[in-house]
Specification:
The complex is a heterodimer. By secondary structure, chain A is of the alpha/beta class. Chain A is 48% helix and 15% strand. Chain A has 9 helices and 7 strands. A 7-stranded parallel β-sheet of chain A has the order 3-2-1-4-5-6-7, sandwiched between helices. Chain A is globular, with a radius of gyration of 17 Å. The relative contact order of chain A is 0.15. Chain B is an alpha/beta fold. In chain B, 40% of the residues lie in helices and 17% in strands. Chain B is built from 8 helices and 7 strands. Chain B has a 7-stranded parallel β-sheet, sandwiched between helices. In chain B, helix 2 links the parallel strand 2 and strand 3. In chain B, helix 3 packs across helix 4. Classes of the chains: A alpha/beta, B alpha/beta.
Chain lengths: 254, 252
């Protein structure tokens, strides 16, 4: 029996990057996976890949900044698969990898980051609660090591990721007595944005790898995905309120 | 940086949101310690400044709504009339900050008011403080509740906002160190942010366990931190979180 056999997992922002890897990993572990993406066509490649491997995945339109769409996506998942066991909020602003001058950046840019990572986390948590309480499920926020350490260049991204860590700590205490666990994963992973940065600066990849004790950037499916599978499965039932840093040893701050 | 020199102490500007209890006590403490003090808050700033002046201190009070960059820039400029500013303290928290609210009880508007607005105000406060200090250097101290470090049942808004504010401060510290601006965080018991100092500990504080020391007013601790930073500590310390909670959290 696979580790997530019989479970249903919703992953937001699952069309590419880390979200794609999480979806593939959860499906590979036996879960039925719902890919929450703004444009459902963006999830087709992942659905095809899961299906080829004998798994189950479907896409659903889910702009996480719209509370109604989040509720509909969760309702669809519950109807189609008989309930929801885990929700993973992975979607981030398209601006998340753009450097920000904290001292002069416009508030409109902050609001763009905050809508997807803070406001949407609120929507998702509220919409997911009844589903997760019914199944003693788990809520996972994909945060970042920058949300622990801060970031000179990605200050807005770091702050919204820190907000999610704060949410996790209190929500875990609030929902623990109801059987719902809440955790975060802070990955360091190869992403399309990082690939573009490496293409623009060929020396950069070597410098980044040199900072990682395990010597490579995380693969979204093979290195980051297993952390999500673990937090979704029964073996992690005594873990809540935590941020699991999955960075090849790059980040060791407590 | 604007170091303390002789008997003349540099101006400290205390900027607060709707919860002004801690900011008021801090400003009074700083004035007693000889600092000219600028009060910036949405309401009552000039009244509080008057009371400091009546007690023989130097103070200016300016009203500025949280998150209004133009108003805050103007307020800080006005406070600078007191003399060179060494430190800006930012304490943006909603009124009745310690009130417990479970996530499922919050409307979207309440979430914005209790959580996202204080983060936005802190960001604007940091930007405005940077503008004030960018020529001379100095220190910024961001006040957050200790529950941001460990979480607390019924306080998702305070912990979410507090962690975002804390990491904004860390990012600013990394970015502005080269300009001679340090940014540090003072973490204080949630109950003390508004007007709870000296009263019985609330549910959030109780959930953290008893402090190792007798509970005190963190305003005293922040005033001491401000003096220590201006006295040379800011040559080495930036991006740090100092827990001023009598040893309850002992984190990070």
């Amino acid at each position: 029996m696979s580790r997530l056999s019989g479970k249903t997992v919703l992953v937001t922002g699952a069309g590419s990057g880390v979200g794609r890897g999480l979806a593939l990993a959860c499906a590979g572990a036996g879960a039925s996976v719902l890919l929450g993406v703004r444009d459902p066509s963006k999830g087709n490649e992942v659905v095809d890949r899961v299906t080829e491997r004998g798994g189950t995945a479907v896409t659903v339109a889910c702009d996480v900044t719209v509370a109604g769409q989040v509720e509909e996506a969760l309702g669809l998942a519950a109807d189609r698969f008989g309930g929801i066991d885990a929700v993973i909020h992975n979607a981030v602003s398209a601006q998340s990898s753009q450097p920000v001058a904290l001292e002069s950046a416009p508030l409109s840019l902050w609001d763009e980051h905050a809508r997807v990572s803070i406001t949407a986390s609120f929507h998702i948590a509220q919409a997911a609660f009844s589903h997760l309480a019914e199944h003693r499920g788990t809520l996972i926020f994909m945060t970042s090591p920058a949300g622990v350490d801060g970031s000179e260049q990605l200050s807005f991204y770091a702050a919204v990721k820190a907000a999610q860590r704060g949410l996790v700590k209190s929500l875990a205490r609030e929902w623990g007595p109801l059987g719902v666990r809440v955790n975060a994963i802070a990955p360091l992973a190869a992403t399309p944005a990082m690939d573009r940065a490496f293409a623009a600066d060929p020396q950069l990849e070597g410098r980044v790898r040199g900072l990682i004790p395990l010597g490579h950037l995380g693969d979204s499916e093979l290195d980051i995905g297993p952390a999500a599978v673990f937090l979704c499965e029964e073996g992690s039932r005594y873990i809540t309120g935590q941020t699991l840093v999955v960075s090849g040893g790059r980040f060791t701050t407590g | 940086m604007n170091r303390e020199s002789g008997a003349t102490k540099a101006t400290v500007v205390v900027v607060s949101g709707p919860a002004t209890g801690l900011a008021d006590r801090l400003a009074s403490r700083l004035a007693e310690g000889g600092h000219p003090v600028g009060f910036v808050s949405p309401h009552g700033a000039e009244t509080r400044a008057e009371s400091v002046r009546a007690a023989g201190g130097k103070a200016i009070g300016v009203a500025a709504p949280p998150g209004d960059r133009a108003a805050l820039d103007a307020a800080l400029s006005r406070c600078a009339e007191l003399g060179p500013t060494s430190t800006v303290v930012l304490a943006f928290h909603p009124a009745s900050a310690a009130q417990s609210r479970e996530l499922m009880s919050l409307s979207a508007d309440e979430w914005d008011h209790l959580c996202e607005a204080p983060i936005r105000a802190c960001l604007v406060g940091l930007q405005s403080a940077h503008q004030l200090l960018s020529g001379s250097g100095g220190s910024v101290v961001v006040v957050v509740p200790t529950v941001a470090l460990v979480g607390a049942d019924g306080h998702v808004t305070a912990t979410t906002a507090g962690e975002a504010q804390r990491i904004l401060a860390k990012s600013a510290a990394r970015r502005w160190g080269i300009s001679g601006i340090t940014v540090n965080v003072a973490a204080v018991p949630l109950d003390t942010l508004d007007d709870g100092a000296g009263g019985p500990p609330g549910a959030a504080q109780l959930s953290l366990g008893p402090p190792a020391l007798p509970p005190g007013d963190p305003a005293i601790g922040i005033a001491s931190l401000v003096d220590a930073l201006a006295g040379g500590l800011d040559g080495m310390v930036t991006g740090a979180t100092v827990c001023l909670d009598s040893g309850a959290v002992m984190a990070p």
